[in-house]
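Weekly sync, protein design subgroup
Attendees: M.S., D.O., the rotation student, P.L. (late)

Item 1: inverse folding check
M.S. brought a backbone from last month's batch and wanted to see whether the design step gives back something sensible before we order anything. D.O. pointed out we never logged the input encoding, so this time it goes straight into the notes. Structure tokens as presented (338 positions):
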């Protein structure tokens, strides 16, 4: 392993990441996060996601148990967005914000994150992930079905009821285009899948694997952009959630559950996190075949009470500085014994 200052190439995003573990030992007099979890009620009558509550739209949630999904009442992309198609001028180009936004409640419990729920709950939750992806993918207006979870007040969630979201985008995001280009270029040059090659590489196998299950591995990426960032990568390439066998889908839920618990154990609290589901775009681009589905956790914490903010360097350069050596992060996550 090399020293505390190093640039590492991120092969999916085609960019440098700066690993600077020396920055983690700088004296800290800035803002601190609340390192303790705030206790929530099992049910909150003022929460629009709880069972039996009437939402802002006037619609009443059923008395559900288990996962429950509905159209976001405050959608960023709407099915009947105004048809403003104007590409006449570079400086006034517009297009309809057609699409769909869904809210995915993991369970009826207002106080239980995915890490807190019993692992048996993950079977129906992973089915929900797949169903919601397929619902959006089937919509001809949707070019990318983007599923994610924002978790914790530290990253600005507007509702504390544990939930994810699914956005059906009317375009392929800039991030996905870069990842698709990188994977297609690698597949054409090497006749192999980029993520599978990365998983099998010595740099990962020797020091970065946190867990190896039957269908999936959890790893810290070699060029991790966030302290304790991890990915869940399949052992066989598959483009999206729809292509998974039932066994692989079930195991994905179990592996996800363990990884979410590792973060809570590491930081000794309900830890904030952003989780991405990286499905291939669903437009008709032939390069989608080279995409490999994976999941990414991007925790904002570097310590229980210290958040990683994206500052001037990151916003100006677009490159990110990670204060924790990825091999050290993987070792700490493995040592938790989960
Ligand atoms: Zn709630």
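Designed sequence read out in the meeting:
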């Amino acid at each position: 392993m090399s020293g505390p200052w190093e640039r590492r190439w991120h092969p999916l995003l085609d960019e440098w990441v700066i690993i600077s573990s020396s920055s983690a030992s700088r004296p800290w007099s800035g803002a601190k996060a609340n390192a303790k979890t705030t206790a929530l009620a099992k049910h909150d009558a003022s929460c629009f996601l709880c069972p039996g509550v009437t939402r802002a739209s006037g619609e009443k949630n059923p008395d559900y148990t288990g996962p429950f999904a509905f159209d976001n009442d405050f959608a960023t992309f709407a099915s009947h967005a105004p048809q403003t198609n104007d590409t006449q001028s570079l400086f006034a180009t517009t297009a309809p914000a057609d699409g769909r936004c869904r809210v995915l409640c993991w369970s009826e419990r207002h106080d239980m994150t995915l890490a807190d729920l019993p692992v048996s709950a993950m079977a129906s939750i992973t089915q929900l992930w797949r169903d919601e992806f397929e619902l959006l993918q089937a919509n001809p207006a949707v070019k990318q079905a983007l599923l994610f979870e924002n978790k914790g007040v530290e990253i600005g969630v507007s509702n504390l009821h544990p939930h994810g979201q699914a956005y059906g985008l009317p375009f392929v995001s800039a991030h996905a285009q870069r990842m698709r280009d990188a994977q297609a270029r690698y597949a054409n040059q090497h006749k192999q899948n980029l993520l599978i090659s990365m998983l099998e590489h010595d740099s990962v196998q020797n020091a970065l694997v946190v867990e190896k299950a039957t269908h999936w591995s959890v790893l810290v990426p070699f060029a991790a952009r966030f302290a304790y960032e991890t990915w869940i990568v399949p052992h066989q390439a598959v483009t999206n959630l729809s292509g998974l066998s039932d066994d692989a889908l079930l195991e994905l839920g179990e592996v996800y559950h363990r990884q979410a618990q590792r973060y809570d154990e590491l930081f000794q609290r309900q830890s904030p996190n952003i989780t991405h589901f990286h499905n291939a775009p669903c437009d008709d681009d032939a390069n989608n075949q080279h995409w490999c589905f994976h999941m990414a956790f991007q925790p904002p914490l570097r310590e229980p009470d210290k958040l990683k903010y994206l500052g001037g360097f990151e916003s100006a350069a677009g490159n990110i500085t990670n204060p924790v050596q990825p091999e050290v992060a993987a070792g700490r996550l493995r040592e938790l014994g989960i």
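Discussion: The chain has a mean pLDDT of 92. The pocket of zinc ion is lined by residues 44, 47, 49-50, 110, 161 (CB under 6 Å).
Action: P.L. to compare against the previous round before Friday.
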